[in-house]
Design brief:
The protein has about 350 residues and is mainly α. It folds into three domains: about 140 residues, Serine Threonine Protein Phosphatase 5, Tetratricopeptide repeat; about 100 residues, Tetratricopeptide repeat domain (Serine Threonine Protein Phosphatase 5, Tetratricopeptide repeat, Alpha Horseshoe), CATH 1.25.40; about 100 residues, Alpha Horseshoe (Serine Threonine Protein Phosphatase 5, Tetratricopeptide repeat), CATH 1.25.40. This is Tetratricopeptide repeat protein.
Length: about 350
């Protein structure tokens, strides 16, 4: 039903790159082709090569470089009058904005990308852009609004037999079920995603599916060792492909698994590692989640109650500002668990 996974963001002279090419390989090849296109005065090719450069930088956590690259790709596409290439550049920019926690900008750029993709007759960039909009809403916790869009995009991806996009949609829907406590449904969807990704040789998608499975196995079954083994398998892929963001989320999830098992000192070390990784790539959502795990671990290890209250109150304000509803609810539960309800830190400060 599904063919081998491919990477539609690797375009022009870079279509020979695999979905599993390491990001350093993509960056080197993309930069070489971009320079050649610029020297030859070929803006259309510069736009396509520049897109790969932008995506490599983004996935490596190099925010400024990614920002410059997608904008340069868009300018080159506009110069060439290539509407589809303009859409792809906007998709990259919108994805970067979401990664940086700028959700309003992400939605604006991704909607523009979807509109241009439709106008330019590129159904793939249109689908990827709509998927980006769905993921933005899901990350913010707006499940009701984006659930139907996720399902529609999944149906479209299945109809086209596009493995990578099907895997992405399955994982997004699975995550919403996991977050609302429907663990069996989440497990089944993550398992299906892992199977499709493995058969299609989509190593990135497979690594994310393993992370989801490990999470469910840990929280539903309490099977710590099996969950850790899955995360180790996924980590090997992340390292081989230089997937900086995915690796940081893997480490954060390992911290979650260890925390649930009562191994608080080990969890603390993993959360500290993930926090440093997220801060290095300036990914606010990951940073906030790692901070929450670290605060809870330190509280379990005997941290002063007032320090915990102050940390959780600051984290709550940060999440309110970013607009991450589900993560904010997690902080509220932590405040309840550790006897530091919202406002406690401010009350102590007044006293």
């Amino acid at each position: 039903m599904y063919g081998k996974a491919f990477a539609p963001e690797y375009q022009g002279a870079l279509t020979t790159l695999s979905v599993n090419s390491s990001l350093t390989e993509v960056l080197a090849a993309g930069t070489e082709q971009l320079r050649a296109a610029e020297r030859a005065g070929r803006p259309a090719e510069a736009a396509r090569s520049g897109l790969a450069v932008a995506e490599a930088h983004r996935r490596l956590g190099r925010v400024e470089e990614a920002d410059r690259a997608w904008k340069a790709s868009y300018r080159a596409a506009r110069e060439a009058g290539d509407v589809a290439a303009m859409a792809w550049a906007l998709w990259s920019g919108g994805t970067l904005a979401r990664q940086r926690g700028a959700f309003a900008l992400a939605r604006r750029l991704l909607q523009l990308a979807a509109d241009l993709g439709e106008r330019g007759g590129d159904i793939v960039v249109r689908g990827y852009s709509l998927a980006g909009l769905a993921e933005t809403g899901r990350i913010q916790g707006d499940y009701e609004a984006v659930g139907r869009l996720h399902e529609r995009l999944l149906a479209e991806a299945r109809r086209r037999g596009e493995a990578r996009h099907t895997v992405w949609a399955l994982e997004g829907i699975a995550q919403m079920h996991r977050n609302t406590g429907a663990y069996d449904t989440a497990y089944a969807l993550f398992e299906e995603a892992a199977g499709i990704a493995a058969r299609a040789d989509d190593r990135r998608g497979h690594a994310w599916a393993l992370r989801g499975l490990a999470d469910v196995i840990s929280v539903r079954d309490g099977d710590t060792e099996r969950a850790l083994a899955m995360l180790s398998e996924a980590e090997a892929t992340c390292r081989a492909m230089k997937l900086s963001s995915a690796l940081a989320y893997n480490h954060k999830m390992r911290g979650n698994v260890l925390y649930r098992a009562g191994r608080y000192a080990e969890a603390r070390d993993l959360y500290e590692q993930a926090l440093a990784e997220f801060r290095a790539m300036r990914e606010p959502r990951g940073e906030a989640l790692a901070r929450l795990g670290l605060a809870k671990s330190l509280a379990k290890l005997g941290r002063d109650r007032e320090e915990t209250a102050t940390e959780l109150a600051d984290l709550a304000r940060t999440l309110d500002r970013i607009g991450l509803r589900h993560a904010r609810e997690m902080v509220a539960r932590a405040q309840e668990e550790f006897g530091t309800p919202a406002g406690a830190a401010e009350t102590e400060a007044v006293r």
